[in-house]
UniProtKB/TrEMBL annotation:
Signal peptide: none annotated. One of its GO terms (molecular function) is acyltransferase activity. In the C-terminal section; belongs to the phosphate acetyltransferase and butyryltransferase family. The keyword Protein biosynthesis does not apply. Homooctamer. This is NADP-dependent malic enzyme. Keywords: Metal-binding, Multifunctional enzyme, NADP, Oxidoreductase. Residues 172-409 form the Malic enzyme NAD-binding domain.
Amino acid sequence: MAADKTPKGRASVTDREALDFHANGRPGKLEITPTKPMATQRDLSLAYSPGVAVPVKAIAADPATAYDYTTRGNMVAVISNGTAILGLGNLGALASKPVMEGKSVLFKRFADVDSIDLEVDTENVDEFINCVRYLGPSFGGINLEDIKAPECFIIESRLRELMDIPVFHDDQHGTAIIAAAGLINALELTGRDLKTTKLVCNGAGAAAIACIELIKAMGFNPENIILCDTKGVIYQGRTEGMNQWKSAHAAKTDRRSLEEAMKGADVVFGLSQKGAFTDEMIRSMADQPIIFAMANPDPEITPEEVAQIRDDAIMATGRSDYPNQVNNVLGFPYIFRGALDVRAVQINDAMKIAAAQALADLAREDVPDDVAAAYQGVRPRFGPQYIIPVPFDPRLISAIPVAVAKAAMDSGVARRDITDLALYGRQLSARIDPIAANTQDIFERVRQYQKRVVFAEAEEEQVMRAAVAYMAQGLGTAILLGRDDVIRATAEKAGIELDRPGIEIVNARISTRVEAYIDYLYERLQREGYLLRDVQRLIHNDRNHFAACMVALGDADAMVTGTTRNYATALADVRRCIDAKPGHKVIGVSMILARGRTVFVADTAVHDMPTADDLAEIAIEAARLAKRMGHEPRVAMLAYSTFGQPIGERSERVREAVKILDGQRVDFEYDGEMGADVALNLERMQQQYPFCRLSGTANVLVMPAIHSAAISTRMLQELGGSTVIGPLLVGLDKSVQIAPMGAKDSDIVNMAAIAAYNAGM
Ligand SMILES: NC(=O)C1=CN([C@@H]2O[C@H](COP(=O)(O)OP(=O)(O)OC[C@H]3O[C@@H](n4cnc5c(N)ncnc54)[C@H](OP(=O)(O)O)[C@@H]3O)[C@@H](O)[C@H]2O)C=CC1
Ligand SMILES: CC(=O)C(=O)O
Ligand SMILES: [Mg+2]
């Protein structure tokens, strides 16, 4: 089958790939999963009759309680009649379903908003309105999509009057918000003023009219805007193909064609159709033109074509395979998230402008590794090729809804107040990030105690980013260890600002503490074959030793390292400087987050082939960590056999370890030996082994040896569906964490926060 090609032959996906993607597995892109267990007779009695009658009566008595007892508060309907599907035109309600399903999954993926697509098979405005208005009780918001102008204007405004929940035509306002955000930044980069810039908008439909209205509301001079449609310029006095929405923006001008309109224009918005801009039009624009060719799936002109004509343009499209994607996916999930969370009755101009400004601001900030990954490893920096955040930017979820919710409260359309917006922002991240969800409480504690963490490899760019993020997230002071000139040069190249409170640079070469660290380390190592000059070299030249000594002597509370060396080497460096805590064993524990469960796996880092005594100590250490991380430990001593079946020599050590634990007075549940299938499956555990002492599924798994621990955690990580944090290093006398080699900045921040947390709160 032919590839779907843009005019210059760029093929990002083939038609076959697109069809296979939609057909494979379960056809379509979404399914519904229950949020409550539906396993037993009792569950049924609660979820359905008779239990369900209780919330029914409660809602009848007080409709507001529907937000407490049903999905309403987190549920948005994506509704279309298919009359303007992307830029493909009127292809009918059924054909619009793939787009509407797509919008629904994006709501879920990016903002944890539950959503369902509804395709309404009528072009009659009144029928459509009636269909939607009576669905109000089902949803917390209505996202209208791909309904053509001018009907969309009537539909949206009537529904807004009739319904007490936000009704938002995404092609209008979502597009306008993103285009406005991109425009704010493009104007800044080209030194233009909103009041004097000249803009042409091709297309005078849903998206175009809303874009023009929003930028006018933001202060753009109406006299500097010319709107065009299929008949050319919309001028005052024109009668052909007009409607009241076009008339409201008709220009006082002699220009009649798009070609004439674009001569000397500073900005052009394309919200029309593939290929609408010619080379000549682009050539005739002002210096440093701003070209947003937003038609989907193919733009009015491609970036390659523009590049052939001129090299001074700032170029954006609606597509994800070019830089500067001006697409409403950056808006609707987050705008509804904020609106739902304050139970806004509508999405007003103040909320839209707040969202646009928040997006524009975010693009000016230094970007995390996740964003660099979305750009194939090239880290975007605010500039002509990066005027708008990318859809996979994990900061969008904590930035945009906060701005929208605040604007809703300030402008009086919120039915619920959020008092601590900073906390709200952090809770938002946890909605889509399992690590954030699990570590949120820990991060809150770390924020209270403001520990000083030394980042041993701070000359590395991603470590430096992590250190700055640690400070910027309010977690504490970041100490960057390295050569001052190298650190500053790296920072400058990467555009990172280091001269801020909460960031300290420590240069090992000129530190006044060098002698103290050498004395301390020589005292420890002189009987281990080290000469004084060996120790001097370690302190002068090796940052792991220097950083570990800082922590050992109290100059820092915790340390994080590991991104440039393998785990065992980094651990050996640290162990030369820091002992195990008295009565503790140093082990590695990996935290696995999967489908709402948290499971700790030990030992994933230190003991190659533990003895029975080692296994018992590993169990104790891992249980302590689980408890400290907020989980009541239930430890399973894992083996390939379960309670003696099949008997084998390799399980003996594990059985022995259980006996050792029996002889000690440990304060946590444990049992074994058992297989992982029993440890993690309560039904099997209780039915087949009713004598098992665990009161629930195990949440701490002690592996019989490091190879089984490493193989199983890496398999889980690679197979998907679970997130692995760690291995976390526990049992040391001072707090140190070793991140995996090549870890990205957000992983290093997590490690630093856990290190700070373990430094004692
Ligand atoms: N990047 C993004 O996020 C978004 C992009 N869009 C894109 O914007 C476009 C319009 O969508 P939408 O507003 O919903 O659709 P509408 O049907 O409401 O409006 C289409 C408008 O485009 C005009 N038009 C069509 N072809 C041309 C042409 N060759 N030259 C000039 N004007 C033309 C029509 O003119 P007339 O009035 O004379 O018929 C009409 O005014 C689509 O390509 C869509 O994909 C839309 C939403 C979001
Ligand atoms: C992105 C979108 O909503 C459109 O092109 O219609
Ligand atoms: Mg659309």
